[in-house]
């Protein structure tokens, strides 16, 4: 007799999957330090909540809507789509957070590059990593440089694109990366080094629900704000007006947050160092604001148990302080394959980036206004940089819909629609159903901007490009 494929049958089938392959299923056990998305049954609509990293602690309770809460211990050991009961007796379903919904609903200290825009930028970077052992013609370490870590949303998307190029990591090492704290936190300008434990309890970072939406999103009626959003860059535009922000020449030496700074046992530290030396692709992300870098580090560490964190090295300082010594150590030989500049007036800081970029490498510049892109292109021409502008594109704005529907509020791309099958209240019978099909109406405008893609040429090719520009200018006159 044919047995129906019930959920129980499917779960039994999942249990027969070998343990080493069960991680790739959608039905794995929820563990300590995981971050999940909770769907609380409401009076009219469900309420969603992105949890912090779960702790196996009796005192760890997650606040929900309607004054209720749920214990983290009640979630640990469950599987996705399982349900628990909150303190008010309401049903709470456990969901896995996508990268887009995780980013949009996470803590933030800087305006993020929204997931839809991140996907476009990563596509323009043209990253095609090969798995270890697939190609004998290995060109060495594939290095990507990002100036302007900010919240870390673009950092996470680039790290996901590079992830397949690196060798697999043992489970015990992966657990250490996801759970261990840093030995010492990078010192703030003029301050003392702080233990990593204080990162978790610092009041400098506000949870996403405590930050008013109008501080992070742009209203459709405020076009001036859309033209000048808060930059997630290493050089804020208010550097001169803010007395607490040190000048560029007063910056402390470069501080780095890598796997070598984890507070782990000596044998684990050695194995992590060996794994790091075997990496085939790495993202160097830099920000001059230590708080931004620490928050971005936490963002990557908490997502899927730090799956993408090992591929990223975080640096705190200025672009010149990081790249100039590396160029000196390489005797001027370029070492970067890709670079991204997400900062105001990028032409003021791009010279060492261009010198460190390999020929045929790509430089992507992201700015909120087209005039900033034009200024950078003008700088490249007037200073005879070996760069060729290959593409300029405008990123469309996205709309945020109701905050209690994160699946439609993740800015993952595309225009959201409302498609429902309902029974009208005045229907003659239960069989009378109606389908609702209409586009969702957003209440906030987010994202957008302009992206330019430059290709690094050989020095002589750059001179020829400049001569060509001069010839075109003469012809126009």
Automatic annotation (TrEMBL):
InterPro entries: SAM-dependent_MTases_sf, tRNA_MeTrfase_Gcd14. Gene3D superfamilies: Vaccinia Virus protein VP39. Residues 206-216 have a biased composition (Basic and acidic residues). Residues 182-253 are annotated as: Disordered. Its EC number is 2.1.1.220. One of its GO terms (biological process) is tRNA methylation. GO terms for molecular function: tRNA (adenine(58)-N1)-methyltransferase activity. Residues 239-253 have a biased composition (Polar residues). It comes from the Eukaryota. One of its GO terms (cellular component) is tRNA (m1A) methyltransferase complex. This is tRNA (adenine(58)-N(1))-methyltransferase catalytic subunit TRM61. The lineage of its organism: Eukaryota, Fungi, Dikarya, Ascomycota, Pezizomycotina.
